[in-house]
User: What shape does this take?
Amino acid sequence: MYGYNGKYLRINLRTREVKVETLDLDIAKKFIGGRGLGTKFMMDEVDPKIDALSPENKLMVVTGPLTGTATPTGGRYMVVTKSPLTGTIASSNSGGFFGAELKFAGYDMVIFEEKSEEPVYINIVDDKVEFKNASHLWGKLVGETTDELQAVHGEKSKVLTIGPAGENLSKLAAIMNCKDRAAGRSGVGAVMGSKNLKALVVKGSNKVGIKDPDALKVVFKESVKKIRENGVSGEGLPTYGTAILVNILNENGAYPCNNFQTSYDENADEISGETMKDKYLVKKTACYRCPIACGRWCSVDGEEMPGPEYESLWSFGSDCGIHDLGEIIKANNWCNELGLDTISAGCTLAAAMELRQLDIVKAEEINGTPLEFGNAASVVEWTKKMAYRDGFGDKLAEGSYRLTEMYGRADLSMSVKKQELPAYDPRGIQGEGLQYATSNRGGCHVRGYLISPEILGLPEKLDRFELDGKAVWAKAFQDLTASIDSLGMCLFTSFALGAPDYAELVNAVCGTEHTEESIMEAGERIWNIEKMFNLESGIAPSEDKLPRRLLEEPIPEGPSKGWVHKLDQLLPEYYAVRGWSEIGIPTDERLNKLGLK
Amino acid sequence: MKVEVRLFATFREGRGKKIYVEMDQPTPIKLLESIGILEEDVAILLINGRDGKFDQEINDDDYLSVFPPVGGG
Assistant: This one.
């Protein structure tokens, strides 16, 4: 068996039955692994219409064929389920070391079914799989939960867990592993919480089979060389982490501030990657087998803590009008400990601040805790309230869409399909806006990172205001990303590697005969099955849209002043490029071509 | 003419965040050379926040933003 282990665990949390099932390798190769394979299983086994927080939903932890191999960054895994935030398919990617360990234990994935009557965690050591009572862990933070489980099961065990946010069914809850790596988006932590599943602990002693170790050595060397020689993955990310983007986006005037009320922040440098490196950075960290090492650790008030990434700096920073980097780093760390998605948490807070700014949320509702743009002192407190559903935090825990909808102002939620948008204003980056609107998991930058060509100039520089050709770029980036997410590698490798490189890597590991074309086609197949899941779950094609503000309110200042997003001009071409109907439904012809009928 | 050049990432080392360069008939390439930055080391050149060219004419009140290869997400 090469790349794949060829078997997976099916764990019924109600009956406590554990089955080891054989993976159909033909299906695995068609959908690669990770995101693709998980979605295929969701489509086959789960009615897309179910309530995401009901026992009928399934939670799948899925690795790729390259996870746990010597492939650079080959440690990624995906959490695939139905999202309680968006109602769409959810597939949240994470690094760290958990995914590789699951492979070493002998499994390609774990499928959790139904719901446990009491809090439990699952301990896996190779063939041994046991249910453990987790009542003593329920309510505990991610760090202490991880420490306690490693004290019992050994430091070499890898721990995947939820924090209080997941237990309290916050729709913004993440699933954490290795303490500070997150399968962050779409509320996957709430699904885990709804099943009374606190954690998954794994330790493995096997190696992943490699079809052609000599070929892998050659391809490995070539790919690492490309990653190291690339300015972004070889120098920019290692030196500054993702935080370097603060100034890049701000200088382009495509850096959302105060809940996207404007998109240029004259004080952005106070929370930039450069400032973080000068004043707060203490060390850098890397995930499994990663030559990039973009992870950061900072010191605030004498305490060292992980992070933050660009998205978190922005969501708790400029999107909330805040420029106190120390408080932002602390809020980010609290999100890790509580198990919250930093993007959605910060953006929901920003939407709440605008509701308060407009006096739609009244002073008496917030019980004395300031809720205003620029108030750094209250950010950590609101983050905790959000996770514990304390007072007004109960409404924040529902995410910005449901929050603003409660006040009749859903237009103030800067989200797509109810998931909060990340740190790039699409009014100033037209292709990225198309990508946001069509993303199968709602507002998201890592479904097709058009920032790369439109802002960073990789693989070539595109005019960020131009509309022509952007549909083709969006489809290509979305399809390639779906494949990378399914292989078990990090998306950051794509700054340096292309589809032919990924084909060579997977062929060396699995003995497959992938080509550039087949990698892209697998990505397209995955994109289409995700879309079908969403349509069957009741997400109308008309949900491929952007918030009204971004379509109607021009950016008021800065280098992108005067621009709105021109989605109506981009969508028809995008649907045509995808081979879908005019309203955005995959045609039988296209589904047949992709082997999905 | 005095032109504002905003520097980011490693370009700040030994230069600071911002330099004003005095020059007649400036172009980005001449401005950057005057502060020891070579064209091939620049990944992103913006003039007034818009994509710039190295030989582009610079007008009064224009400013440059220059980045080495950096990025992420």
Notes: The two ends of chain B are 37 Å apart (CA to CA). The CA atoms of residues 44 and 67 of chain B lie 5 Å apart. DSSP finds one helix and five strands in chain B. The first strand of chain B starts at residue 2 and ends at 7.
